[in-house]
Amino acid sequence: MADTKILTEGCKDFGISLTEKQTEQFLEYYKLLIEWNEVMNLTAITEFEEVLSKHFVDSCALGKAVSMEGEKRLLDVGTGAGFPGIPLKIVYPELEVVLLDSLNKRVKFLNAVIENLGLTGITAIHGRAEDIAKQKEYREGFDLVVSRAVANLSSLSEYCLPFVKTGGMFVPYKSGSVDTELSEASRAIKVLGGEYRDTVRFELPGTDIDRTLVVIEKVKETPKKYPRKAGTPSKEPIK
Q1: Range of 31's domain?
Q2: How many domains is the chain built from?
């Protein structure tokens, strides 16, 4: 069996003890990621230990910022190759997870992973956040909304906050310092019904990479007009 110490020790840093089955699921996930990556662009990071650290362990950090106890419904916006949604589903099997991505071929990959890993209570959907957030079954329907997508916090808040239930949390995964970004996004967060709660900074276990989780609570409903039509949040962030 491949050396999974980086994965098991890294998860332990976040208070997660992996079972043998979970470790096997991560190994199978890695295998599928590399196979599919040869025919489509899923990740630039392919080396085994780097994937374990920078994708898998990093994805599992959510428990550092919010409580993961109980039954929760989680949405991963702009999930790409399934990060952080699939690792979170592996380590917290009771989570109900929805993975959202705008590229259909990536959704096919995600479905292959879900099937091969034998995961239940998780679905992958194809669409743009701006359109899906208008649908009744998804709007304000999630306890937790996460994203590792590379977008400024103001745009990302408009993509994500409409999905969060009042009382729920939006937690974007960021690298390094977010102070400037946070101050620039403060109005957008407020307009969309959110309230900044905390910034959780940590070093990715076994590396010198600085990571940041921003905790935003949904305190009131998002006005109906948000998100604006596809493309607008990134072109004209709320200021």
Answers
A1: 5-235
A2: 1
